[in-house]
């Protein structure tokens, strides 16, 4: 595949992922929506199937949609390092665009929301108990589970045109969605389970510099490195274990 087509498909898939993922949070948080106060299961199911939708769209590239997944695949020798920059560019650009589209969908609700200073959490993660070390541990463990499953799932070793086929051989991308769902339900309580640097950093950039939300709060840049570094470390550990196991 032309490397720039990797950028295009990863951008499209990640944009849909963030549009739907941030969208379900907006539907839950913003006051004048039909999904207001839908609850944690409402959000986790929405994010899980946002992964399914985005990954299905980006199937041509192997649907990484996540720099941690890209990093893990490269370390595990399942993706050429020369392709990594194209994946990262598509993922980050798509995440920013997805956040902008989410804002556009809920523009009227943002305009009338009575706590605009508390809207960062619609787009990016915020820990319930701020402690960068333990927040980092949470993100490492959650991402380790995701990437190790991707690398060791039944069809992960099947390669088409140099791109791994993710997921259980019967479930396909729905398998990844189920793993994301259980990570969210089981491990998402402390930090909001970014488990994806682009998913957190791209919307945080959009929130800080692009989205015209009147009265919006801080982008909390002091925390922003945690949901970037944690997932990359977790993915790296998963890939190293895969290599050590000879998988």
Structure description:
The protein is an all-alpha fold and 247 residues long. It has one domain (3-244): Glycerol uptake facilitator protein, CATH 1.20.1080.10. It has 11 helices and 2 strands. It has helices at residues 3-29, 40-57, 67-75, 84-105, 107-112, 120-123, 132-152, 173-187, 197-209, 221-224, 226-244, and strands at 159-160, 163-164. Strands 1-2 form a two-stranded antiparallel ribbon. The longest helix is centred in the N-terminal third of the chain and has 27 residues, at 3-29. The model has no long low-confidence stretch (mean pLDDT 93).
Strands, total number: 2
Helix percentage range:
55-70%
Summed up, the helix count is 11
Note the beta-strand portion. Answer: under 5%
Contiguous uncertain segments of 5+ residues: none
Question: How far apart are the termini?
Answer: 26 Å
Please give the radius of gyration in angstroms.
Answer: 17 Å
Any chance you could write out the topology, listing elements then pairs?
Blueprint: H1 3-29, H2 40-57, H3 67-75, H4 84-105, H5 107-112, H6 120-123, H7 132-152, E1 159-160, E2 163-164, H8 173-187, H9 197-209, H10 221-224, H11 226-244
Antiparallel strand pairs: 1-2
């Amino acid at each position: 595949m032309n490397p720039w087509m990797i950028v295009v498909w990863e951008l499209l898939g990640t944009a849909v992922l963030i549009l739907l993922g941030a969208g379900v949070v907006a539907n839950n948080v913003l006051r004048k929506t039909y999904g207001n106060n839908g609850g944690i299961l409402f959000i986790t199911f929405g994010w899980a199937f946002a992964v399914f939708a985005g990954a299905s769209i980006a199937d041509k590239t192997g649907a990484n949609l996540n720099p941690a997944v890209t990093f893990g695949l490269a370390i595990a020798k399942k993706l050429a390092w020369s392709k990594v920059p194209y994946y990262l560019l598509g993922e980050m650009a798509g995440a920013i665009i997805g956040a902008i589209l989410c804002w556009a969908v809920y523009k009227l609700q943002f305009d009338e929301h009575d706590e605009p200073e508390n809207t960062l959490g619609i787009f990016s993660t915020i820990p319930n108990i701020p402690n960068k070390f333990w927040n980092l541990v949470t993100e490492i463990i959650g991402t380790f589970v995701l990437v190790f499953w991707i690398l060791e799932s039944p069809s992960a070793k099947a390669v088409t045109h140099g791109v791994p086929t993710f997921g259980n051989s019967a479930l396909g991308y729905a398998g990844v969605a189920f793993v994301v769902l259980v990570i969210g339900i089981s491990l998402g309580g402390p930090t909001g389970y970014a488990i994806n640097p682009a998913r957190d950093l791209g919307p945080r950039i959009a929130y800080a510099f692009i989205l015209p939300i009147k009265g919006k709060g801080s982008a909390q840049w002091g925390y922003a490195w945690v949901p970037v570094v944690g997932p990359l470390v977790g993915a790296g550990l998963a890939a190293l274990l895969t290599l050590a196991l000879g998988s």
